[in-house]
Every structure is written in structure tokens, then in C-alpha cells.
Amino acid sequence: MVSDAQIVAQPAQGDVLYRVVRTEQPRVEDFRSHREQPRRRPVPAGTPWLLLVGVSMFDTRDGALQIARRRPAWVAELRLAAGRGIHMAVTGSYGHRTVWGDPDVLATCVETCHVAP
What whole-number distance in Å separates Cα of residue 64 and Cα of residue 95? Predict the structure, then answer.
């Protein structure tokens, strides 16, 4: 598991990332961090605080589809524009990224949404 000391956030620069969402029309709620969710899933002991206040995304659609196939879901494609207070870091294998930003702003970055086969 990654530690807080290993997380290096960079500002978004027009990056395209993919997020698993629950509906075809992503909502602001789909971009809230684990800490902001009303019903929280248990997390492993020792999970860095920075990961709990960020949102999981992937650098490829296939990476997100690996997660989306576990349940009915869609994959939102986002273009994270520079200058909007969005930051991201590599925080896992297989192209996993953690993204920090206002959920309202992240929701406006959605360009399209793909159904998970």
C-alpha cells in the first residue's frame, strides 16, 4: 500500500482520466471522496488519509472497466482542465490515480460516459 510520504500530487493539465460511476448521467455525488460519502465502505487499516479524501480514477478506460465489470456501472471519461483546482497522483498499479478537486468541478469535466459491458 502507498503511504502519504509516497504521494506526489501534480496539478491537472488537460489530462483524460476515467471514473467508474453508477449511472449513465454522472452526478456530483459520483465525484465525492470516500470521506464525503454518507455510507462508507470499510477501508483497510493504515489507509493513508490522502487517499480517503481523493477520488479514484484510471488513466485508461480498460483500467476503469476492470472495476466496473464487478457491478452494474458506467465509465465516465473526464478531461481535467488546468487552472480549476484539480490535482492528481499515481497511487497504485494498473494506471490507478487519486484525484483531488471540488466534486462540482469534477462533474463538469465529464466528456462522455460508456456502459460497462
Answer: 9
Ranges of H-type helices in 17-98: 49-52, 61-68
**Letter string b/e over residues 36-64, b meaning 16 or more CB atoms within 10 A of that residue's CB:** eeeeeeeeeeeebebbeebbbbbbebebb
pTM > 0.70: yes or no: yes
Q: Are 54 and 2 in contact (CB under 8 A)?
A: no
57-75 per-position pLDDT tens digit: 999 999 998 888 777 789 9
Residue spans of the domains in the chain: they are 4-115
* Overall residue count recorded for the chain in this entry: 117
C-alpha cell at 26: 454522472
- pLDDT 10s digits, 36-54: 877 666 777 888 888 888 9
